[in-house]
Design a protein that fits this description.
binds iron/sulfur cluster, alpha/beta, binds adenosine-5'-triphosphate, 4-stranded antiparallel beta sheet, 36% helix, 12 strands, 14 helices, binds magnesium ion, Rossmann fold
């Protein structure tokens, strides 16, 4: 099956200054995942603050270069400079950021941004074509040019403006939208509204989404697949419902035990990222210092990804799913 996106063994290493001067921080550690071309999906990336979600997505958006590994879009490697067409990339992959007010300066009207996107990227040749394209995109998110025309960003609520930024992303008819915490700055009552829109757009326009979130309840509701990151490592991956209902990694289990009501975030305990061992060259399971099931083996060598079947992967010597099976015997 052909792939829209392939992330193969990708790592990003930052040098950290200050007290830790000279140390290397592995923000993303040997992550592999993929999205098929012919089956649009919503892939949620979850994990506590600082686990590398945004860094991973910035690499997919070409805002950072990986230090190791390779990323491919439509089979073309990012490192193959000859086949890279920046304009085509902008058409195919669109970002949506956390705070929509930062995406639209309050000095220009919001529709100006939308027209500019349509004209600059050659989607429309002139203003009347741009009017049509912009109106269509706005209608796809439940708005219209009539409602938006002549207004500044400050005249919209956070939820409304996030819809406008989604409309802007839709102008290029992208194959992939990368949404980094798109509902974090939005009123709780509007969150479901926005994530519902992702589902609609996936089905109507066959767009895949990478949805980065702290909000597990919306992830549960919206995702086809879930990837859990922990200190840069992909520790669990698979179909969303299976992971949420029956997590295989002890850390995912800890996260899922906190799955709350719409809009809630991690519990205090989970939000407290344990910074120990974030540096380069960790030779053991990174979750071992917090894991109730850790053995000497876990403290001595890194587990390898384990294929659990059905598209599921876990990075743990003793998956919870197996423990539960044994307990039933
Ligand atoms: N440009 C940079 N230079 C140095 N360190 C960085 C840089 N960008 C990110 N980091 C570090 O890399 C790690 C991962 O950061 P990242 O922003 O990807 O986390 P995140 O999972 O998106 O967190 P959050 O949920 O808070 O947004 C963090 O420890 C962060 O401090
Ligand atoms: S490998 Fe060991 S320490 Fe790591 S998550 Fe699994 S049981 Fe816990
Ligand atoms: Mg982030």
């Amino acid at each position: 099956m052909s792939k829209l996106l392939e992330v193969n063994g990708v790592s990003k290493i930052f040098r950290v200054g200050g007290m830790l001067r000279g140390k290397k921080l592995v923000a993303v550690d040997n992550v592999s995942l993929s999205i098929d071309s012919d089956k649009p999906v919503i892939l949620s990336i979850v994990g506590e603050s600082g686990c590398g979600k945004s860094t991973l997505c910035k690499m997919v958006l070409r805002l950072h270069n990986p230090d190791m590994g390779e990323i491919k879009l439509d089979g073309k490697s990012y490192s193959d400079k000859k086949s890279y067409d920046p304009k085509q990339f902008k058409l195919d992959v669109q970002p949506i950021f956390q705070n929509p007010y930062e995406s639209f300066s309050s000095r220009k009207t919001v529709d100006t941004y939308l027209y500019n996107t349509a004209l600059r990227l050659g989607i429309a040749k002139n203003r009347s074509e741009a009017d049509k394209v912009v109106d269509e995109s706005l209608k796809s998110v439940g708005m219209s040019l009539e409602v938006v025309k002549g207004k500044y960003s400050t005249q919209f609520s956070g939820g409304e403006l996030q819809r406008v930024s989604i409309a802007r992303a839709l102008i290029t008819r992208p194959k992939l939208i990368i949404a980094d915490e798109p509902v974090a700055a939005i009123d709780a009552s509007m969150k479901m509204n926005i994530v519902n829109l992702f589902k609609e757009l996936r089905d109507k326009y066959k767009i895949s989404f990478i949805y980065i979130t702290h909000d597990l309840s919306t992830a549960y509701y919206v995702s086809d697949y879930i990837a859990t990151l922990y200190r840069g490592c992909l520790i669990e991956y698979g179909p969303a419902k299976q992971i949420m209902d029956n997590p295989a990694h002890p850390y995912t289990e800890l996260l899922m035990s906190s799955v709350p009501r719409i809009g809630d975030k991690w519990s205090e305990e989970i939000a407290m990222a344990d910074m120990e061992g974030k540096e380069y060259a960790i030779s053991y399971c990174k979750f071992a210092p917090r894991c109730p099931y850790a053995t000497d083996k876990c403290r001595q060598a890194k587990p390898e990804p384990k294929d659990l079947g059905g598209g599921r992967m876990v990075l743990c010597y003793y998956p919870m799913t197996e423990k539960k099976k044994e307990a039933k015997k």
